[in-house]
């Protein structure tokens, strides 16, 4: 029995439950910020007379940093321990949200782009990948649970934020995020310790106190020599472009242009978020059971089909068609994450979370480019109509790419 396997046996089931509860809450909290982009853009346009271009820079920087921060956050967690970096990330989120409350285009773009981007970036699914590999021997189901938690924060809280924005004003959802972050900070301080979650035991087997930032790039140098790394990165970049880059920033403004209220679009996003939960947990469970390439191809194809359908029904009043879209898209929205993380662990071993953190950079670059493209298309044409066809085509291409022989597990 290896030393790592012995470490897993030293952690009780209750401590694992407590640990994943804390991790899930951190991911929910970070997720509560990321989908505010579209809601805030709509509210700032309505209440302050801003344009979509006034927030595009901050949103694009946010999405890029959301991915680019992850490799360095993983390094810091492995060097200094997960708890310290989690607390620092939550404090950065607090600072970013409080600065965004100020009525300034420059401050909003810098605070949302840099501070919120950094804070959320440290608590992405790369954090979930490291967490799952540190506390659990089989990572498929835990990563599915944490991915579902991320989506819960992103979409399930959105209708409440939208109601607060409509009733109180655009600052209200930001204040709501601040309150949630403070609650999470208190729970992290209380539960993420040796007694309740075996942090010291985990740290003793996973911490790398002598590592440096240079090691981050040394690891990257090794990853880029592997063709599978590039294929997964390309496919995952397409994944980001057809999920985060669309639903976080373009769906609510696009629906508003078609006469759908912010509240109604938020409820559609709520349905997407709720269906993400069984979709990602199911994908995580299947990742431990079946071929991951075939699973990813099916997910991409069905997601693409739903996006091609969307522009034909978005101009209609909210009815069964849009609800059906939300259900289908929700199931396959982020279901790619657990099989990709499991693939990374299978291919790169103990460096799987680090490899995934770099692959997640591609995901967020794709998301940022799609967000920018959506804002540009809307600015030029006055509509997001063409964006959905482009996104659907990207999904179909990704379905082909993941079946590449260089993407396999062996």
TrEMBL record:
Residues 19-410 form the Major facilitator superfamily (MFS) profile domain. Keywords: Membrane, Transmembrane, Transmembrane helix. It comes from the Bacteria. One of its GO terms (molecular function) is transmembrane transporter activity. The keyword Metal-binding does not apply. The chain crosses the membrane at residues 20-40, 52-73, 85-104, 110-132, 144-162, 168-192, 229-247, 267-287, 294-314, 320-343, 355-379, 385-404. It holds the Pfam family MFS_1. PANTHER family: EG:103B4.3 PROTEIN-RELATED, MONOCARBOXYLATE TRANSPORTER. This is Predicted arabinose efflux permease, MFS family. The lineage of its organism: Bacteria, Pseudomonadati, Pseudomonadota, Gammaproteobacteria, Oceanospirillales.
């Amino acid at each position: 029995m290896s030393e790592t396997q012995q470490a897993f046996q030293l952690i009780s089931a209750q401590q694992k439950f407590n640990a994943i509860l804390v991790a899930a809450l951190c991911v929910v909290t970070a997720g509560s910020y990321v989908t505010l982009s579209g809601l805030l853009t709509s509210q700032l346009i309505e209440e302050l007379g801003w344009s979509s271009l006034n927030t595009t820079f901050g949103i694009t920087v946010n999405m890029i940093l959301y991915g680019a921060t992850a490799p360095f956050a993983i390094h810091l967690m492995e060097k200094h321990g997960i708890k310290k970096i989690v607390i620092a990330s939550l404090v950065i989120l607090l600072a970013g949200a409080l600065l965004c409350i100020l009525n300034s285009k420059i401050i909003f773009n810098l605070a949302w782009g840099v501070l919120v981007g950094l804070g959320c970036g440290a608590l992405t699914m790369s954090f979930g990948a490291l967490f799952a590999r540190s506390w659990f021997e089989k990572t498929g189901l835990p990563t599915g649970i944490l991915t579902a938690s991320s989506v819960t924060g992103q979409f399930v809280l959105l209708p409440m934020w939208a109601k607060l924005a409509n009733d109180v004003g655009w600052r209200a959802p930001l204040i709501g995020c601040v309150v949630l972050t403070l609650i999470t900070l208190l729970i992290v301080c209380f539960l993420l310790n040796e007694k309740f979650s075996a942090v010291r035991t985990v740290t003793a087997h996973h911490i790398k106190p002598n590592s440096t930032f240079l090691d981050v790039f040394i690891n990257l140098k090794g990853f880029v020599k592997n063709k599978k790394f590039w294929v997964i990165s390309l496919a995952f970049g397409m994944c980001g472009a057809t999920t985060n880059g669309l639903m976080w920033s373009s769906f609510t403004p696009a629906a508003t242009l078609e006469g759908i209220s912010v509240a109604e679009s938020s409820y559609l996003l709520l349905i997407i978020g709720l269906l993400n939960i069984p979709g990602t947990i199911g994908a995580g469970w299947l990742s431990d059971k079946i071929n991951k390439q075939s699973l990813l191809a099916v997910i991409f194809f069905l997601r693409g089909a739903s996006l091609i359908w969307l522009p034909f029904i978005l101009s209609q009043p909210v009815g069964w068609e849009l609800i059906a879209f939300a259900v289908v898209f929700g199931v396959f929205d982020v279901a790619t994450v657990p099989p990709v993380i499991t693939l990374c662990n299978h291919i790169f071993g103990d460096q799987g979370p680090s490899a995934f953190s770099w692959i997640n950079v591609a995901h967020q670059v794709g998301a940022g480019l799609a967000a920018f493209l959506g804002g540009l298309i809307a600015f030029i044409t006055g509509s997001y109509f063409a964006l959905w066809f482009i996104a659907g085509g990207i999904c179909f291409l990704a379905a082909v790419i993941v079946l590449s022989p260089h993407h396999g597990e062996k």
